[in-house]
Amino acid sequence: MSTASVDDEDTTTIVFVPARDDRRGQSRRSGLWNPTDVATFLQVSRSWVYQKAEAGLLPVIRLPGSSLLRFEPDLVRAFARGEWRPARPPGVQPAKRRK
């Protein structure tokens, strides 16, 4: 996985290039990113990706019957641009009252 910077006068665009399989030159993944891909794209640690996904602050796809997390690249890009917001902001659960 690599990133490349493209300078355009006063703006900088970071382009994410997914890992390629050396034998065939094709992407090893069929579109969805794993936590390592997201961490590389956002330039954060994998643990940060897991924490934000579990907190509902990062768009994530949870595979049924598995603990695997996958991410839709377009949603991650929208998150990076500040265009994605959680459907329901995480909040503090109210304390249960004793009877």
Q: Regarding quaternary structure, how should these chains be classified?
A: single chain
Number of helices: 3
Provide the structure class: alpha+beta
The amount of beta strand, in percent, is: 15-25%
Please tell me what the overall shape is: extended
Number of strands: 4
Q: Which strands sit side by side, in order, in the main sheet? A: 1-2
* Helix percentage range: 25-40%
Topology pattern, helix = H, strand = E? EEHHEEH
Identify the CATH architecture of the domain at 29-85. Orthogonal Bundle
Mean pLDDT: 76
Distance between the termini: 56 Å
Describe, in plain words, how this protein is organized in 3D.
The protein has 99 residues and is α+β, with helices and mostly antiparallel strands. The protein has a domain at 29-85: Multidrug-efflux Transporter Regulator, Chain: A, Domain 2. It is 26% helix and 18% strand. The chain is built from 3 helices and 4 strands, in the order E-E-H-H-E-E-H. The chain has a two-stranded antiparallel sheet with strand order 1-2. Strands 3-4 form a two-stranded antiparallel sheet. The chain is extended, with a radius of gyration of 17 Å. It starts with a strand and ends in an 18-residue tail after the last helix.
